[in-house]
Amino acid sequence: MGPQGSGKGTAAQELSNILKIPTISTGDLFRTEAASGSELGNRLKSIIDSGSLVPDELTVGILKQRLLQDDCKNGYMLDGFPRTMEQARLLENISQIDKVLYLDVDFDTVIERIGGRRTCPKCGHIHNVKFAGDPNYCSVCGTKYVVRADDTEEAIRKRLDTFTQKTLPIVEHFRQKGLVLSVDASRTPEYTLKQILKGLGK
Ligand code: ADP
Ligand code: ZN
């Protein structure tokens, strides 16, 4: 968990490789559906681009479907879920949560970062033009990066507001249960990953 631009997606990709468990990103699941052009996809696209949350029922339905797939048998990591108390309760009903990672960073830093964010439309790789590497083409598969349609200043501010109101209380809920590993996410992606691995005893 962590605010938009805290580096969740990047850390999750790396951790997936190291821990050998899949990362399930509800944002990615939604974007894939949106790109399919289905009726549901079109509905999702307008919600996402405006910076609002997708309704809980729809979100949980799509996530549950994904968790039934074979690769989730030995565990999984969630990126971008849960974001509301209702989602957290549902998750606690259907799975056992071992750890909650919290990527701690202030909002001024993330607003600046999101301005430089690029995503590969093919493989989902996330890059930031502020860090080293080719700013135009995906370092994993060579496809031209795109700027996400919901990375406008207005949509970002709205998402950060929602994060404060709806998601931060869940972090507190998990903290009281002793599940939270909080790391300083204000520096580089490498530094964030190093602290996570240390905190996990890896
Ligand atoms: P970010 O962390 O930058 O908001 P994501 O890819 O995680 O990016 O999410 C993009 C959008 O997908 C969100 O703004 C929201 O509309 C939708 N979304 C993702 N996860 C959830 C969720 N758990 N509940 C509701 N909506 C979600
Ligand atoms: Zn790629």
If you had to describe this structure to a student in words, what would you say it looks like?
This protein is mainly alpha-helical and 202 residues long. The protein has a single domain (8-199), classed as Rossmann fold (3-Layer(aba) Sandwich), CATH 3.40.50.300. The protein has eight helices and six strands. It has helices at residues 8-19, 26-35, 39-50, 56-67, 85-94, 107-114, 153-176, 189-199; strands at residues 23-25, 77-79, 100-104, 117-119, 126-128, 180-184. The strands form three sheets. It has a two-stranded parallel sheet with strand order 1-2. A hairpin with a 6-residue loop joins strand 4 (117-119) and strand 5. Helix 1 packs across helix 8 and helix 2 packs across helix 3 (39-50). It is globular. The two termini are 20 Å apart. The mean pLDDT is 94. Bound molecules: adenosine-5'-diphosphate and zinc ion.
